[in-house]
Sequence to fold (571 residues):
Amino acid sequence: MIDAPPFVTILVISDGATPGYSALVASVESQEEGTAELIAVAPGGDLAARVNQAVDASDSTFVAIIRPVGVLLPGAIAAVRARASDRPSADVLYGNESVPGRGGRPVSLLKPIFSPERLRCQNYLGELVFYRRSLFNAEGGLDASRPGAELYDLALRATRPAGSVDYLAVDLFARTVSAEALLDSDAIESTRAALVAHLDATGGGEVRSVGADGVHDTRRLVSGEPMVSIVIPTRGQYVEVDGVRRCFVLDAVRSIREMSTWHNYEIVLVIDSVAEQQVVDELLEIGGPRLRFVVWSRPFNFSEKVNLGVLHSDGEYVLLLNDDVKVITPDWIEAMLALAQRPGAGMVGGMLYYGDETIQHAGHQYEGGEVSHIGLDAPRGDAGPQDGYRVEREVAGVTAACALMPTRVFREVGGLTNLLPGNFNDVDLCLKTTWQRYEIYWTPHAELYHFESKTRDASVHAFEIDVAWRRWGFRIKESDYWPHAFNRPVT
Amino acid sequence: MTEFPTDERDVSQEVRQLALVDRIIGLEAEVANLSATYGLGKVTRDQIALVKSSTTWRVGRVVLSPLIFVSKLVNRGGRK
Fold:
């Protein structure tokens, strides 16, 4: 009788005496019998060549290369095997990890579903990644020219041609080493080279910095000089804020004009007919020829005002913007535009802060029947779960307080629904956009203040919930891109 | 009266087109939502229960009960 080949060959980078090696071996041996073979490969020297040689000699379906920093959890390989059996196109599989938490108790480190733009900013796939052996070989295995970054480089290369990269929402691996070691100078240079090659192979971009902590500032680059139409609905009036008379839209337009490094834009102001003449005059003075007015004289309907502005715009891209914002980063338009130019991109949002230097918005999350802002109330500078506030990433949605879209996508999804005049219209827009199979991205590199009051009247009408949930109730339970707890809900 | 240098383009038809596209996608979503929430099988069972609890159904059953009784007798006799 011929023994069936194992499902996976696990290559442990260890000389056998490394702390943690014995526990890792024991955890592999306790998996379902005959599903895994384990090979130890000593670190250093020609590591890549020796790993590739070992993989060549194996006859398993998958390979996984890990360091002795934890253990496989019971049933891990059985779970991966079952998924691979259900989805034969799955070439790369990964799952959650647990890490030592307070008092040593394990805490689940939840992962997003496959997020290629996020992957170029951090290797969020984690320690235990299963690669189909045929894919591993087709990609040439580990690259000896990337010492110290072989596994990240493999993740970047292998996920590009993979039929499917599958995420299992279960803990597969338990880290026993709590903190990730910082990258040394060799690893940093290897990571930079891997990222440059990856960006070149995926539409271009630049590596601005490689972080020793594993978070890298890589950017897509804007192609051409497309016109961006910034659409701002406003009442155009002065108001009293904390005893001071101010007009938000004047500050917003002034900050756009003074800060933005992108030059090919127009500003379309959808302004109430009751606007003050003084505001109009000042806007003309600040905005100059870039400014265009569309007068609104009907009852308040935020969605209809925005739609009207977009229909009066000429840009290839539209940037929906609230009138109570102030630009912080000069290249905010470029940061969003570069992502909006990705193939299949539908919408891009940025990082918004309240005036008190706390985060208002780092993307939308739709989970458990509720919608909320990622990062809400966290202090500015907070890294967020798994450094999520520091990296560009795929998201379920973004706020229409600052959202850039290709104009054709805005039109293709029917704009903002006029059935939702006040609340949830942006949630609906995002869900329509992804329903039409466009991707939504968020970037931390487009920073703005959003002076929306934390205590604003968040009254939600029953009909608004009825409209939004009747359409999308079944999708307001997806935490695919942000599987973390949220706090204050969106209205 | 406030004076604006306004854009006078007539976009009323495009406004209606946008709303129409929105309604179509919205209806698709509602169908998908119903299907995901209830599932076809459950909808059918619920609908049957609803029909059987209606006055029309009950009156119909009363009217037809002699015929149903005779039908059952005939079928029983035929099986012997």
User: Anything to note?
Assistant: The radius of gyration of chain A is 25 Å. The mean pLDDT of chain A is 94.
